[in-house]
C-alpha cells in the first residue's frame, strides 16, 4: 500500500474514533473512569479506554450500562472540601440542554448524596463542539478520603435518555469522618420502572421538575481515620 493511501486510512480511523467520542456529552475533567482523553490516567483493572464516553447509559426503555458507565476505579483526582470544583465537558450533541445532578459516594456507589442540581438550564444554549463548564461546590463538611464524584444528565430533546460519568477522587480539607446529608439522585429515563421525563425543549412543556423536589433525603456516615 502506498504511503499516501496508508496515511488516508489512518486519518480516517482517527476521525472515526474522534467522532464517536464527541457524540452527545461526557465528563472531561475531572477525568472520568475509562477516559481516553489526554492527561487522564490509563484505565486499570483490565478496563479498555472508553472511546464512546459521551454516550448514554440507558433510555426509558432499557438500562444499557450501569450508573457511572464504567465501574472499575482508576487513579483518583484530589479535590478540596469547601471549594468549588470546576467541571468541564466534551459536547457533541447537547440535545437542548436539560437537567443535571452531581453527587458524591463514599461506599463504592451504593449510596449517593447530591451536592448540586441544575433544572432545565444545564447545557442549555450550548452548541456542539463548544466548551462547557460548571462549578460544583464541594461541601465544607465533606469527609476526607476516597470518594466517587458522579455527573448525571437528562436531555431535553431527543430520545429519553440518561447520561452518567464518574470520577474517582480523594477529598482533602474536610472533616475527619462525620456525616454528609442531602438528597439521593433521581435516576429518570433509566429503564421502564424509572420516571419518564418527556421532551421539554419548548417553554411550557412538562419537565417533571417537581420530582426533583421530592427526592429522598439521605445521610452518609464516614468513620474517622
Provide a descriptive summary of the structure in words.
Helices cover 11% and strands 35% of the residues. The protein has 2 helices and 11 strands, in the order H-E-E-E-E-E-E-E-E-E-E-H-E. The strands form 3 sheets. Strands 2, 3, 5, 8 and 9 form a 5-stranded mixed sheet that branches. Strands 1-4-7 form a 3-stranded antiparallel sheet, with no helix packed on it. It starts with a helix and ends with a strand. The model is unreliable at 5-22 (pLDDT under 50). InterPro entries: Cellulose/chitin-bd_N. Keywords: Signal. Residues 73-169 form the Chitin-binding type-4 domain. Residues 1-23 form the signal peptide.
Q: Which features does this protein show?
A:
Coagulation Factor XIII, Chain A, domain 1, 11% helix, five-stranded mixed β-sheet, 225 residues, three-stranded antiparallel β-sheet, 35% strand, single chain, mainly beta
Amino acid at each position: 500500500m502506498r504511503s499516501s493511501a496508508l496515511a488516508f486510512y489512518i486519518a480516517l480511523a482517527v476521525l472515526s474514533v474522534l467522532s464517536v467520542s464527541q457524540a452527545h456529552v461526557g465528563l472531561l475533567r475531572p477525568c472520568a473512569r475509562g477516559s481516553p482523553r489526554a492527561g487522564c490516567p490509563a484505565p486499570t483493572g483490565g478496563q479498555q479506554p472508553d472511546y464512546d464516553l459521551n454516550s448514554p447509559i440507558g433510555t426509558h426503555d432499557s438500562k444499557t450500562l450501569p450508573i457511572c458507565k464504567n465501574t472499575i476505579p482508576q487513579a483518583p483526582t484530589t479535590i478540596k472540601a469547601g471549594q468549588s470544583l470546576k467541571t468541564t465537558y466534551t459536547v457533541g450533541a447537547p440535545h437542548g440542554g436539560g437537567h443535571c445532578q452531581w453527587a458524591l459516594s463514599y461506599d463504592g456507589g451504593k449510596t449517593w448524596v447530591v451536592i448540586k442540581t441544575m433544572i432545565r438550564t444545564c447545557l442549555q444554549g450550548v452548541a456542539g463542539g463548544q466548551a462547557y463548564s460548571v462549578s460544583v461546590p464541594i461541601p465544607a463538611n465533606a469527609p476526607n478520603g476516597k470518594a466517587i464524584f458522579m455527573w448525571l444528565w437528562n436531555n431535553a430533546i431527543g430520545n429519553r435518555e440518561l447520561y452518567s460519568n464518574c470520577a474517582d477522587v480523594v477529598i482533602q480539607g474536610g472533616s475527619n469522618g462525620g456525616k454528609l446529608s442531602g438528597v439521593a439522585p433521581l435516576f429518570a429515563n433509566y429503564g421502564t420502572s424509572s420516571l419518564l421525563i418527556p421532551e421539554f425543549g419548548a417553554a411550557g412543556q412538562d419537565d417533571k421538575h417537581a420530582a426533583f423536589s421530592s427526592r429522598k433525603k439521605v445521610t452518609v456516615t464516614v468513620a474517622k481515620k
